[in-house]
Write a structure and sequence with these properties.
By secondary structure, this protein is mainly α. The chain folds into two domains: 63 residues, no CATH class; 84 residues. Helices cover 75% and strands 7% of the residues. It is built from five helices and two strands; from the N terminus they run αββαααα. A two-stranded antiparallel ribbon has the order 1-2. Strand 1 and strand 2 form a beta hairpin. Helix 2 runs parallel beside helix 4. The two termini are 66 Å apart.
Length: 166
C-alpha cells in the first residue's frame, strides 16, 4: 500500500511539473561579455536545482572526509573494547571449565588490553570500563584462589558441587 501511495505521489509530481514547465515561455538572458546566453526559465530552474543538489552533495562529502579520522578512532576504540570483552569471556569460560592455565593466559591478555584502553569519552563508557575493571579484579582473585586452594572433596566427586550419596 505504501509503494502504491509513493507511485501515486510521483505521478502527481510529474503531472504538476509538466503543467508548470510545459507552458512557460519565459526566457532569461545571461550576459558575460562578449557573450550573451538566452535560456528558458525552465532550463535555468532545473540547472539551478541540479547545481544546489551537487553543492549539497559536495558539502556532505567534504564533511564526511573531515569526520573520517574521528570516526576511525571511535571504531578502533570500540574494537579494542570488544577485544577486551571477548578475552574476558574466554577467560571466564576457561575458568568455569577448570582450564587454569588458559584462564590465566586470557586474564593476562585482558589485563594488557585494559591497560592499553584509551580514556573514556562519556559516562556510559566510564561505567562499561569500570565494570570491565571489576570483572578483571574478580577474575584475578579467582585465578589466585584456584592456584592456592585445592578442590574440595565433594566438588572433586560431583561436577556441580552436589554430593552424590543417594
Amino acid at each position: 500500500m505504501r509503494s502504491a501511495l509513493w507511485t501515486l505521489a510521483l505521478f502527481a509530481c510529474a503531472v504538476a511539473a509538466a503543467l508548470f514547465l510545459g507552458s512557460n515561455r519565459a526566457t532569461v538572458a545571461l550576459f558575460w561579455p562578449p557573450w550573451r546566453i538566452d535560456l528558458s526559465l525552465n532550463l535555468l530552474l532545473v540547472g539551478l536545482a541540479l547545481f544546489l543538489a551537487l553543492a549539497a552533495l559536495l558539502a556532505w562529502a567534504i564533511a564526511s572526509v573531515w569526520r573520517m579520522p574521528t570516526e576511525a578512532k571511535i571504531w578502533r576504540d570500540h574494537r579494542h573494547d570488544l577485544a577486551a570483552h571477548h578475552a574476558f569471556a574466554r577467560a571466564a569460560e576457561h575458568l568455569a571449565q577448570e582450564r587454569w592455565e588458559q584462564a590465566l593466559e586470557e586474564a593476562a591478555h585482558v589485563q594488557h588490553l585494559l591497560a592499553t584502553l584509551p580514556p573514556p569519552a562519556s559516562a556510559r563508557e566510564t561505567r562499561e570500563q569500570q565494570s570491565l575493571l571489576n570483572a578483571n579484579a574478580w577474575l584475578r582473585e579467582a585465578a589466585t584462589r584456584a592456584q592456592t586452594q585445592p578442590l574440595s572433596p565433594s566438588y572433586a566427586v560431583a561436577p556441580h558441587g552436589l554430593d552424590q550419596e543417594h
